[in-house]
Amino acid sequence: MGSSFQFFGGVIQSSNPASAFLLTKKDGEFLRVLASVSVVVAHCVHFWVEDFYVTRDFLSLAYFSTILDQFTRFTVPLFFFLSGFGLTLQFQGKQIRIWEYYRYRLAKILAPFLLWSLFTAFRHQEFLLGMPWTQDPGGSAKTLLRFLFLDGFDYQYYFVIVIFQFYLVYPFLYKLGRSRAFMGLFLLLHLAFMSPVETYLELMGLELPKIHANLLVFHWFYCFAGIYAAWNREFLAAMVGRWSNRRLLGFWGLTALLLNFEFLSNIWNQKILSDTDHFNRWAVVLYCMASLMLFMRHKAAIAARVYTNPAWKFLFTHVAPFTFFVYLAHTHVLRVVDYLMWEVTLFDYINRILLVVAGSYLLAWFSQWLLEDFPRLRFYLGLPKKPLVNWSEVPGASLFRVRRSGLGGSSMASRPMPGQEPSMSRRMDLSSEHSSA
């Protein structure tokens, strides 16, 4: 049975959905987990990347951090790819009115963005309060809106800003994802605005138009590639099937070397760090393609060792559902850890990463646990719909279990007091049904 997407009175017809997809739901969740943790790690080591940019000391922890940072360049493009891929799969099996799409999709991304921006606004209070609200209220409001919806109140919010733009235009471009011609067109447009094009133009006395880096034009290709892959199920399989394992691994290694070589070349050419270490590079496109191909080649082995292994179940139950929340919240955890660990020894380096990654997910789990009876607030914070947190599946949670022995060795915490709501008893003690095996 075909599916459709109602669009201002018209209908965009899709092809019959296949019974199996090349990228499964488990694959998407695993990739989201990998990208989420990599983003947090990249932000943790950025201090050392800045240090290498200044010192250029190759025999240092800063240079190792720079290499690690470049290895994480697949993260944001992968998020965009999965957004386009997953959104297209959702609409191929059902029909939805355009106003219903916007009401749900825009609210889903806009509500957490506005709330977390409010949490972050205190860092900019001097700037916000210093604007001429009395003398020029219109200009001040325009500046505020640009700061909020284009610049972002925190540096990682640009991803949410771009995704918001993608959701806005997606219904207009949904059916174009079937076309190889449009795939090539968007790739060419993407490459035309990416480094090192600006370097070649400068040699000719020309320059690219000044376009804000948080506009969709710099990221659209990754979103569209996801749409194209969802429509053309054999696209990734055909791309991977032409390569041997050795050739594919060699291609991935070559793109990783190219990333680092370009980074070093940009430093020696005295580009500022924000123009040196970004995603808008041809080398990043190649690296992302090689990384996705490498995953596709080995995803069966990963599935056998991870997806069905009970030891890794928590990745899909307690990590993947919280990636959006962690993306929004982890910089707050990072600043707390920075305040507490201001030294830069190897010990601090390792613990900084561990504390920020673990602290961000602990914040997510406890927020979900505390707000299990408040679904609307969970929605605003970017937490998952499923209200319960099964503490027995949280890594290390058993170390903090509190046991209360009553008559016959039973746990008093597991039995509600007379007249007490079961949900209250459940929330009062971690040794209750949340943490029971």
Order of helices and strands: EEHHHHHHHHHHHHHHHHHHHH
Oligomerization status of the protein chains: single chain
Sheet with most strands: strand arrangement: 1-2
| Overall average residue pLDDT | 83
Shape: globular
Number of helices: 20
Uncertain regions: pLDDT < 50 for 5+ in a row?
1-20, 402-437
Strand fraction: under 5%
Helix content: 55-70%
Keywords:
437 residues; mainly alpha; two-stranded antiparallel sheet; disordered N terminus; disordered C terminus
Report on the structure:
This protein is mainly α. The protein is built from 20 helices and two strands. It has a two-stranded antiparallel sheet with strand order 1-2. The model is unreliable at 1-20 and 402-437 (pLDDT under 50).
Give me a quick take on this structure.
This protein is mainly alpha-helical and 437 residues long. It is built from 20 helices and two strands.
Task: Describe the secondary structure blueprint for this structure.
Blueprint: E1 4-7, E2 10-13, H1 25-44, H2 46-55, H3 61-71, H4 75-92, H5 98-120, H6 125-130, H7 137-151, H8 158-173, H9 180-192, H10 197-203, H11 220-231, H12 235-241, H13 245-268, H14 273-276, H15 282-307, H16 314-319, H17 323-340, H18 346-370, H19 375-381, H20 422-428
Antiparallel strand pairs: 1-2
Helix pairs in contact: 1-4, 1-17, 1-18, 2-3, 3-13, 4-11, 5-8, 9-11, 12-15, 13-15, 17-18
